Automatic annotation (TrEMBL):
Location of region: Disordered: 108-127
Source organism: Oesophagostomum dentatum
Name of the molecule in the record: Protein yippee-like
Presence of the UniProt keyword Zinc in the record: yes
Statement: the UniProt record of this protein carries the keyword Metal-binding: yes
Length: 127
């Protein structure tokens, strides 16, 4: 097994694995906190890092049929949520390639502002 590299994209409010405190994402990536997971409330994010993914599975969820992958912390291998691969219903397609993190499985911590003063965003800088 090779080295495991951990990404940290900063932010003033960090979302970390509850079990090992590995950085997963930051609050600026949040789309909605009005989701429900198997352990309770959950949050939908544009992107998250330091995750491993299960095989794709068909699931019947409260909002319809989806193809999803469970997501696990890359360090401690605990399940922290899932990722939407495909939504069968057109109205649910905004979730595709987005990550759900369950509030009971993650913590929020204070982060740090960008010293260069760059705005927090989920978009890539222009090349």
């Amino acid at each position: 097994m090779g080295r495991i590299f951990i990404e940290n994209h900063g932010g003033t409010r960090l979302v970390v694995c509850r079990f090992c405190k590995t950085y997963l994402t930051n609050r600026s990536e949040l789309i909605s906190s009005r989701f429900q997971g198997s352990s309770g409330r959950a949050m939908l994010f544009h992107r998250a890092w330091n995750l491993d993914y299960s095989e794709a599975q068909h699931r019947d969820m409260m909002t319809g049929k989806h193809i999803v992958r469970d997501v696990m912390c890359r360090i401690c291998h605990k399940k922290v949520g899932w990722m939407y691969e495909f939504a069968m219903e057109e109205a649910q397609r905004y979730k595709e390639a987005r990550v759900i993190l369950e509030k009971a499985l993650v913590d929020e911590e204070d982060g740090f502002p960008d010293p260069a003063g760059a705005p927090e965003t989920h978009e890539q800088p222009p090349s």
